[in-house]
């Protein structure tokens, strides 16, 4: 069942007809209630679905097809506009239900705070897992202008829940000095600027581990992904982002869930960012959902 049974919009390409027969569930988290600069990521999931129709279902990189993933697009969680806490509670409850049903959750944001309740749900089902985080920003603040529920805080919350030693951030090129210092002293694994070589070094140390993957589209350089709320120059290429997805897919790790966040269609005049996100999601579907 979709969230809205009367839904008449687009679904991600090659979505399975029923929830029951699916291995993976694609779902949207249309929330941008706490952003500090440019809002609009709540419209990201819908636009990613629309542009996905221009993709091929087959990946030559992974020699696989979306149909093999048996993915069902459940639509967007109907989050209450402006109510951050209730929205986060609803996301956690929904992901918990997917895990209870034995499904692979693949989320689309929305701002990056939405990853926090997702990881909380996973923590109820798994005793030991790590988070691989690809982003331009540290997201390690305790609060933003006095507000602990902020898109600047999700990875700090996650680190406090599962342990900083179980969190790995790649591509980081922006954050407060205090965030970088906390990462150094806490045992948090933070890699600045690059994503491919640091991940290549880390993956062998995670052999046999369960892994959750979260990608903020602003890890890409603005020249490749202008449609995001908080651009940061000096980012990586789409080729590099695809490479790390493929590295994770082929590694000796058990990917248990993933998300991609922060696509803002209002700033994406050519759909460049949404198209990049859709293709990365396709590779995640084929590579991660077993």
From TrEMBL:
<protein>
    <recommendedName>
        <fullName>Agmatinase</fullName>
        <ecNumber>3.5.3.11</ecNumber>
    </recommendedName>
</protein>
<feature type="binding site">
    <location>
        <position position="137"/>
    </location>
    <ligand>
        <name>Mn(2+)</name>
    </ligand>
</feature>
<keyword id="KW-0378">Hydrolase</keyword>
<dbReference type="Pfam" id="PF00491">
    <property type="entry name" value="Arginase"/>
</dbReference>
<dbReference type="InterPro" id="IPR020855">
    <property type="entry name" value="Ureohydrolase_Mn_BS"/>
</dbReference>
<dbReference type="GO" id="GO:0008783">
    <property type="term" value="F:agmatinase activity"/>
</dbReference>
<feature type="binding site">
    <location>
        <position position="112"/>
    </location>
    <ligand>
        <name>Mn(2+)</name>
    </ligand>
</feature>
<keyword id="KW-0620">Polyamine biosynthesis</keyword>
<keyword id="KW-0745">Spermidine biosynthesis</keyword>
<comment type="pathway">
    <text>Amine and polyamine biosynthesis; putrescine biosynthesis via agmatine pathway; putrescine from agmatine: step 1/1.</text>
</comment>
<feature type="binding site">
    <location>
        <position position="139"/>
    </location>
    <ligand>
        <name>Mn(2+)</name>
    </ligand>
</feature>
<feature type="binding site">
    <location>
        <position position="216"/>
    </location>
    <ligand>
        <name>Mn(2+)</name>
    </ligand>
</feature>
<feature type="binding site">
    <location>
        <position position="135"/>
    </location>
    <ligand>
        <name>Mn(2+)</name>
    </ligand>
</feature>
<dbReference type="InterPro" id="IPR006035">
    <property type="entry name" value="Ureohydrolase"/>
</dbReference>
<dbReference type="GO" id="GO:0008295">
    <property type="term" value="P:spermidine biosynthetic process"/>
</dbReference>
<comment type="function">
    <text>Catalyzes the formation of putrescine from agmatine.</text>
</comment>
<dbReference type="GO" id="GO:0046872">
    <property type="term" value="F:metal ion binding"/>
</dbReference>
<keyword id="KW-0661">Putrescine biosynthesis</keyword>
<keyword id="KW-0479">Metal-binding</keyword>
<dbReference type="InterPro" id="IPR023696">
    <property type="entry name" value="Ureohydrolase_dom_sf"/>
</dbReference>
<comment type="similarity">
    <text>Belongs to the arginase family. Agmatinase subfamily.</text>
</comment>
<keyword id="KW-0464">Manganese</keyword>
<dbReference type="GO" id="GO:0033389">
    <property type="term" value="P:putrescine biosynthetic process from arginine, via agmatine"/>
</dbReference>
<dbReference type="InterPro" id="IPR005925">
    <property type="entry name" value="Agmatinase-rel"/>
</dbReference>
<feature type="binding site">
    <location>
        <position position="218"/>
    </location>
    <ligand>
        <name>Mn(2+)</name>
    </ligand>
</feature>
